[in-house]
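REVIEWER CHECKLIST
Item 1: Sequence provided? yes
Item 2: Single chain? yes
Item 3: Sequence as submitted:
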Amino acid sequence: MPDFETFPPVPKVVTVAGTAVELTPIRLGELPRLLAAVRPIAADLSADLSAEPDWLDLLARHGEEVLELLTLATRRERAWIEGLALDEAVTLACAVFEVNADFFVRRVAPSIARSGERLAPILSAGTTPSPGSSPPATATPR
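Item 4: Structure as written out by the authors:
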């Protein structure tokens, strides 16, 4: 492995609400809580990976999860995140998504695709007919 690959990632600094916030990729210990926050919004995040997510729509439909995601990804207090002006929150969300794009593209999107592939046969089969009547409990006389 070349020496430059062993250096930690350089943080992306974004100024929000007059505060410089250093963003780095998600760490292993943060993953369980982050995945729990991302799971409900994963399909919306991966709908069109070439475009920026519609943060206002995500906030409207998944507000708690987006707030938790921003809290975890920025390593800031939840109250600070909640106190942001809407435009600042969107700026921060865009920066978080950019810094962790590799995570979203390589982990979240394929996971959604695999789930869809597993569900497709079940959904396309429709409902299955109920089983027929069970055989009579007593023999019929001859």
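Item 5: Key structural point noted by reviewer: Residues 57 and 109 are 19 Å apart (CA to CA).
Item 6: Recommendation: ____
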